[in-house]
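Structure ticket #2291
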Amino acid sequence: MQQQNILSPVSEKQGFNWNDFLSFRTIITLKIIQIVYLIGAVLVTLGGLGMLFAGNSGYGSILPSGPLMGLLTIVIGNVFWRMWCELIIVLFRINKTLTNIEDNTRS
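Resolution: structure written out below.
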């Protein structure tokens, strides 16, 4: 049995279709999520570095800081941020796969 790539984008075969875009059949969220992930990862890392070098400043009672919290924020924060973005991408890929299955059963 030969495997088919069911996740190949429709845009390679047919070009961009405004009808599909305006009727929400073309999903652009996957590209946007990848950009949002990069921005979020940079922000989490910068926040962790800020905590790492801030030490126990005057915000100690409000925000935990210090070297340990900074390292934990960098490592665990980025892992959880990645997992959240991957979860969203998986949901959209499930939608794409189901759409491809529906299109294949019609023909």
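Closing remark: Confidence is low (pLDDT under 50) at residues 5-12.
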